């Protein structure tokens, strides 16, 4: 397995940095990114790019290099970075000897004949997904699974 980076960040309400600024710091504009936003009553489906307005109770942006998840709290945002490149310096590394390994994954939903979800899931037709397992080398347990776009 290869070394990985797992880190967290809390953004307090009224902080200088915003969720949009953190997203811009984590993903370059030349990198192909996808997003998935969640509200209590609906989901966005997988969308291409970083959302212009990422304010929702939960969401994630992922690319080949990493994934950033966020969740709103009563006092701001909790963020989790999972990546194969170091996060920006303002993130706090999580304790552990993080390693990663890629696995294949399949999408099901409105664009296939499979009916594994009660409602179809929208996603770009060209998108092929994979999973990146983040395991702590000290315990050999997988703690996080991130989405990644696959090239084939």
Description of the structure:
The chain has one helix at 19-26; strands at 2-3, 5-12, 34-38, 43-48, 58-62, 66-73, 76-83, 92-93, 98-104, 128-136, 141-150. It is mainly beta. The strands form two sheets. A seven-stranded antiparallel sheet has the order 4-3-5-6-7-2-8, with helices on one face.
Summarize the structure.
The protein is mainly beta and 152 residues long.
Helix content: under 10%
> From N to C, what is the helix and strand string?
EEHEEEEEEEEE
Overall spatial form:
globular
Strand content: over 45%
- Structural class of the secondary structure composition? mainly beta
Strand order of the largest sheet: 4-3-5-6-7-2-8
Q: Average pLDDT, to the nearest integer?
A: 89
Identify low-pLDDT runs. Answer: none
N-to-C span: 22 Å
Q: What characterizes the major β-sheet?
A: 7 strands, antiparallel
Taking Cα atoms only, what radius of gyration do you get, to the nearest Å? 16 Å
**Count of β-strands:** 11
Count the helices. How many?
1
């Amino acid at each position: 397995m290869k070394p990985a980076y797992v880190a967290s960040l809390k953004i307090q309400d009224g902080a200088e940095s915003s969720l949009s600024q953190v997203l811009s710091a984590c993903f370059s504009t030349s990198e192909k990114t996808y997003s998935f936003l969640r509200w209590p009553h609906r989901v966005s489906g997988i969308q291409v790019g970083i959302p212009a307005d990422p304010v929702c109770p939960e969401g994630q942006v992922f690319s080949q290099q990493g994934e950033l998840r966020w969740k709103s709290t009563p006092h701001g945002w909790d963020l989790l970075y999972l990546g194969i490149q170091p996060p920006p310096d303002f993130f706090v590394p999580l304790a552990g000897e993080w390693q990663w390994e890629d696995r294949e994954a399949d999408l099901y939903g409105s664009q296939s004949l499979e009916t594994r979800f009660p409602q179809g899931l929208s996603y770009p037709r060209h998108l092929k997904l994979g999973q990146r397992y983040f395991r702590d080398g000290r315990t050999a347990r997988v703690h996080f699974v991130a989405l990644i776009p696959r090239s084939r």
